[in-house]
Design a protein that fits this description.
By secondary structure, this protein is of the alpha+beta class. The chain is 29% helix and 22% strand. Helix 4 crosses helix 5.
């Protein structure tokens, strides 16, 4: 979305051709979807970069432009928690290929190692020089005998619930923006989402996601039910160590909908529940002014009349 000047011009022309007034898009230049700063106003050290959604390490691809500052802070402060969630889940279930950093206690000596799960949940311990004191390591290992019992503890992963929620919210928001374009930037209610992404250590938006199997393919859907009105953004993430794929479903409420109410009713959904959703993944909301117009009318209370597939 908005990778080239031509694509931006095409999208903006469709916006101003719709019946919605887009006077907030000033100056008329590409804007970072997270901080809303025009790229032309951002310092040269923080130019536009391509954003992965979900993170590239989990199978995502580059889908939109964000400024370098937002991209870097998201990877450093947010995305790592989603990566570590998948590692934690696979560690807990001893999936083949899962790894964990461990600390081994041998009397007064401490050795850092990596445990890897192989076939039949067999554990293989690897001692790496780069995570140990290379001067002491040979002497310690020379004392180890075959079948010796070793005491060890898992080294904790960096995993914060608040940052995890923000990381998943950011991925869903970026994916939605890649499909709907600047319409998303004009919904003032989504300022809370953008603020949450920029302040991942605060709780501004409640958790709006589930990893339950709801029988929905990856994509963008809309729901018109009163308490769940909004967009269901469904995407998959893969742990590169185990190749275990998991699907995440995020509910981004429509404008004028309450985030806390969405959180409450989302938690009530169970696998097998029938969701009345329409698939809008392949509908053009970037260059078709009629679709853009109907989308924004729906967002603020009217019916969505464009064709949607089930």
């Amino acid at each position: 979305m908005l990778i080239t000047t031509e694509q931006y011009d095409s999208h903006f022309n469709a916006l101003i051709s719709s019946s919605i007034v887009y006077d907030k898009l000033t100056p008329l230049v590409p804007i970072c979807p997270i901080c809303l700063q025009p790229f032309s106003d951002i310092q040269a050290t923080s130019v536009a970069t391509k954003e992965d959604a979900p993170p590239q390490s989990l199978g995502g691809t580059k889908v939109v432009l964000t400024c370098k500052k937002c991209n870097n802070s998201a990877g450093r402060d947010i995305d790592i928690h989603l990566v570590n969630l998948l590692k934690h889940l696979d560690q807990r279930n001893f999936h083949k290929g899962s790894t964990r950093r461990v600390r081994i206690y041998d009397g007064s000596d401490i050795v850092n190692g990596v445990l890897t799960v192989s076939d039949n949940k067999k554990l293989t311990l690897e001692i790496l020089k780069k995570i140990n004191d290379s001067r002491k390591l040979p002497n310690i290992l020379s004392k180890w005998e075959p079948e010796r019992n070793l005491s060890f503890t898992n080294q904790k992963l960096k995993l914060s619930e608040i940052n995890l929620n923000t990381g998943i919210l950011k991925t869903a928001y970026i994916l939605l923006y890649s499909k709907l374009g600047y319409s998303v930037l004009l919904w003032e209610e989504y300022n809370q989402i953008r603020e949450q992404i920029q302040k991942p250590n605060l709780t501004i938006v409640p958790p709006l996601w589930t990893m339950q199997d709801l029988g929905i393919k990856d994509g963008i859907y809309y729901n018109n039910e009163c308490w769940l009105k909004g967009f269901f953004v469904v995407f998959s993430v893969t742990n590169p160590d185990t190749q275990k794929k998991r699907q995440i479903t995020v509910l981004l409420p429509a404008p004028q909908s309450d985030f806390q109410v969405a959180n409450f009713f989302l938690r009530k959904i169970r696998p097998g529940d029938k969701l009345r959703i329409g698939n809008i993944t392949n509908i053009d909301f970037l260059t078709c002014s009629q679709n853009i117009n109907q989308l924004n009318q729906w967002a603020y209370g009217k019916s969505l009349l464009i064709y949607v597939s089930s």
